[in-house]
Amino acid sequence: ISTILGGVGLYLMSVYFIENDKLADLIFSIAGTLLAIPVVFLVYNYFDYRMSKKVNETLANSTIYEINSWMLLMIKVLRKILRVRDPFEWDSINRMLNTTQASIQRSLVIVKSDVPDLKVCKNEMDDLLYNTAQLSVLSPVQIQIMAALNKEISHLINEREYRGDKKKMAKYVYKIMDLMDDWFDHCEKKAW
Q1: CA 82, CA 92: separation in Å to the nearest integer?
Q2: Among candidates 175, 134, 61, which has minimal Cα distance to 143?
Q3: 150 Cβ neighbours under 8 A, 6+ residues apart
Q4: What is the per-residue DSSP string for 25-42?
Q5: What is the DSSP string of 112-179?
Q6: Disulfide-capable partner of 97 in 10, 34, 139, 181 (CB 3.0 to 4.6 Å)?
Q7: Is 177 exposed, middle or buried (0-12, 13-18, 19+ CB in 10 A)?
Q8: Residue 83: DSSP 8-state
């Protein structure tokens, strides 16, 4: 504001009070510079804001795409350990994600060769969580769901490797599917 007032004051002084043309031109040029600085600053801030908004939207969409791709990978692993034979369509996926814990316990079979697939999913979720935290493009609810998914997958892997209690494994699978259902119902499009 002071730069604008100074520019306006110098302009008025050069027009009305200075009779020497060369001095008036010099002061007029200084006044123009003082007026141009805030205008350039405001224009820069405006375009910077617009570009930042577009970049954040692009990052958010890209992040959501990566998470949805991870969700599909996790669904494939869950279908394998639950021995789901239905076609890979959204209707069958929704039915699977809404399965009861008792039904999960009856059909759950995690063999030793399934553990590496679960570990791949866990490691990819670790990377996604780290990247999304660095980018700050997801809402706190989305990050909470992702962190909870990561925790439940870790519990499932540990239970399979160290104890093998089918009831507890079913509980972890149920929680994983419930969190995935929450993601698809509420979060997949609500990035910042």
Answers
A1: 13
A2: 134
A3: 122, 125, 126, 129
A4: HHHHHHHHHHHHHHHHHH
A5: GGGHHHHHHHHHHHHHHHHHHHHHT-S-HHHHHHHHHHHHHHHHHHHIIIII--HHHHHHHHHHHHHH
A6: 181
A7: buried
A8: T
